Amino acid sequence: MLFAPYPLLLRSLDAHPQAKLVTHVLASAFDSVEPGAAVKKYLRDHPLPAGRKIFAFGLGKAACAMTQALADETPLADALVVTKYASNLSVVPVTVIEGNHPTPGEASLQAGIATQKFLSHLTQDDLLVCLISGGGSALMTAPRIPITDLQILTSGLLACGARIEEINTLRRHLDELKGGGLLSLANGAHVLTLLLSDVAGDSLEAIASGPTAPDPTTCADALAIIEKFELKDKIPASIIPALKETLKPDHPIFARVINTVIAGNSIALQAAQVQAELQGFKAIITNSVLEGEARLVGYEIAMQFKESLQKMARPFCLLAGGESTVTLRGVGRGGRNQELALAAVDVLAGLEDVLLVAVSTDGEDGPTDAAGAFVTGETAQEAKSLGMFTPDYLLRNDAYSFFDQIDQLLKTGPSGTNVNDLVFCFAF
Fold this sequence. Notes:
428 residues; alpha/beta; six-stranded mixed sheet; glycerate kinase, domain 1; Rossmann fold; 2 domains
């Protein structure tokens, strides 16, 4: 099986002589974390208990596919889905809400209200199956502060280059549904949560801000993040007083919930490694928890790749995954994968038969229509022939414009899955 965006990805790479080979490696990674298949595999290995009404709550970018897969396996008493892009569901009954992302808005607020109402109908004899994936933190919110204040905080953290774990730490301490808060409203129902992880290390509290997971962080941790980014005097006065401790791992409420990660970045990397080796590459996973400033990560990956060219026999492939961040300095367009790739351009300049691909598995890299970008040894020279120099574009955070002019953007459209980012370095 080849995932839905395969033709678009192949089209993005079609000028490269190894386009089909590379696309098959990428497709294998996406296929391995297809949300519906992951849900069905779990349910077939772990059948749901008989004799209970089953309710479904889907939250995140993959919520539609995950909820449909659950409905294919078992009858549902009711279902609520909160997602970014709704797709057709043959689930009855179901309510689907499109929230706001990456900054929560009025639609996210309405999703939070709908979730609280949905939970109020549960009883202790029911089973609630939560299907959680990345993006859920913004798509649904029940904040203890005005939504406009939450937007200011979120935008400020994003602009500072805060890691998703840091952003979600603050979200958990400001929201009634996060940090285990959903369980408090479930009226004693039994809860099974299946998670598609979009965070490094698969930390349960960080995935969609952990609506059914215990939170090891404290209000002091949240305050430390505000101080780290020097935001205390830049955020609304309502925020700090509204911080509230979340439910901790020793709370008895967690005795009635099972939280299970059914797919994540490491699974995608392993699938790509297997496919690359089937196609004749020596494939090595170098890092499955990438984090840090995108331009620094891109430079370091490119340097490691360049050094490996002196030590390893071709063909080989280096694979890495995780999620970098971007600190906004300019007013250009781009995303973390595009900026990571841009930082690799000059390092790889002049090298023969090399290719670096950086892609977001959800198909959306920053506020653009690209999923990422790719770089070859000829990229730098092609850009210079058009009067483009990478430092200028890095300074403006304008990676999209750079790669758009040389037709090296990767465009897949929303993929339907979400397990962080992938960076592959091919030596042919």
